[in-house]
Amino acid sequence: QHQQHRQHDRHHDQHQRTNEGLTTMNGGGFTSVALLTCTIASLAFSQAFRWHASGALEWDKATAAHAGGSDVSDTLLLCVRIGALGLIVWTLLIISRNPPITLSGFSTTRGEVPVTLGGAARFGTFTVWCWSLQGFYFALGVLASLGAIPGALVAVQWILFEISLAMALLVTIIVTFVLVPAAQAKGKPVQFLFTWYVLAMHNANTLFMLLELVLNRFEVHALHLPAVIAFGLCYVLFAWANERWGIGAFYYFFLDYTRPYAVLAYFGLFAAVSVFYGAAFWIDTLFESHRWIGWFLIPASNAIMLWKEPGKS
């Protein structure tokens, strides 16, 4: 009996040391990632304030004529904005009313775990965040096209356009070339990614923003880069809170700060949103110098989209 007690105590001590080690690892991982995140945010925001103070952000270009006018057709621009807003609102209503779905989540203590998403939790993925952001942009766009947008919101609309264009490209490319192939390689089902409302969020998002690029008078300003970094920061903060007090896991493995190279993963996240903002800036610059390219890009964007599950006829 005395030996059984000693064995029990030994197991208890071993379990306690494991928990302490796990806590230390989690705390250390979070500390490193949080320090990196704060550093990137501080650099981005301090630079943005300097640019703002010098007038380099050119907010004087945020006029009602830019927000609601088109060099092609004001009527066509209004129709596109109404159609996009209608589809976005419709899909979000469907998502909110659909039955819960079970996906893979990534816990800091339990590894990969099944996560059931229903109700408000369905709005927590980065894709839905970006789709909802487009909804806000098009809502302001409709007001602008009708001449009813308050002057103070024109700059907000401009920023939302820049972020939405960059993030639409990111979401479409990541889904097509990373998420779907990776899931299929692991033998995981991907059918839900090819329902019509999910396809809208992964494909129509880019089509809508390219149409906006061609029709509206906004430009992608290089020095507005901190805005897209701020959007990425907001999602990271939400993901931390959601893991701690929400669903108990991350939607994406690279947000799990206990994994090896988590600091590099987070750096890569902020680098990715910056690179895609750079891509949006490059596309806009190309369009401004060669207008016909914009109309070519809309059908050409089909090359980065998946409309049906690979391997299915």
Structure report:
The protein has 313 residues and is mainly α. 68% of the residues lie in helices and 4% in strands. It has nine helices and two strands, in the order αααββαααααα. The chain has helices at residues 2-54, 64-68, 74-97, 126-145, 154-185, 196-215, 225-245, 262-289, 291-300; strands at 101-107, 111-117. The chain has a two-stranded antiparallel ribbon. Helix 3 packs antiparallel against helix 6 (196-215). Residues 1-26 have low confidence and may be disordered.
Layout of secondary structure:
Blueprint: H1 2-54, H2 64-68, H3 74-97, E1 101-107, E2 111-117, H4 126-145, H5 154-185, H6 196-215, H7 225-245, H8 262-289, H9 291-300
Antiparallel strand pairs: 1-2
